[in-house]
Amino acid sequence: GDRAHKPFICSDADVCSIDLDGTEDYIVLACDGVWDVVEPNDVPELVYNHIQQTKGDRTRTAHRIVEVAKESGSNDNISVIVVFLR
Asked: In the record, what terms sit under GO molecular function (predicted)?
């Protein structure tokens, strides 16, 4: 990152461990550029709507979440990975 900001930035990642029970359809991994402007509870609807609009094509689901973050005003780095489990 930026050396000038090093004293003010913590490189320790937020980590959350969740046991999966096998009913999960996908996992969304994203950085704070997404979570600062998109509520986690809104993501399932975003994913579902995207899949419906693309007639089941899941290939650009992460791109859609990036678009929503940009439209919502994120001015931070935006990275998204959607891992479909089924």
From this structure: protein serine/threonine phosphatase activity
In a domain, 77, yes or no: yes
pLDDT in tens, 30-76: 999 999 999 999 999 999 999 999 999 999 999 999 999 999 999 99
Nearest-angstrom CA–CA distance, 43 and 30? 11
Predicted local confidence at residue 2, as pLDDT: 65
Domain of residue 24 covers 15-84
**Total domains in the fold of the chain:** 1
* Cα(83)–Cα(28) distance, integer angstroms: 6
Does any domain span residue 8?
A: no
How far is residue 32's CA from residue 38's CA, in Å, rounded to a whole number?
A: 9
Residue 38 lies in a domain: yes
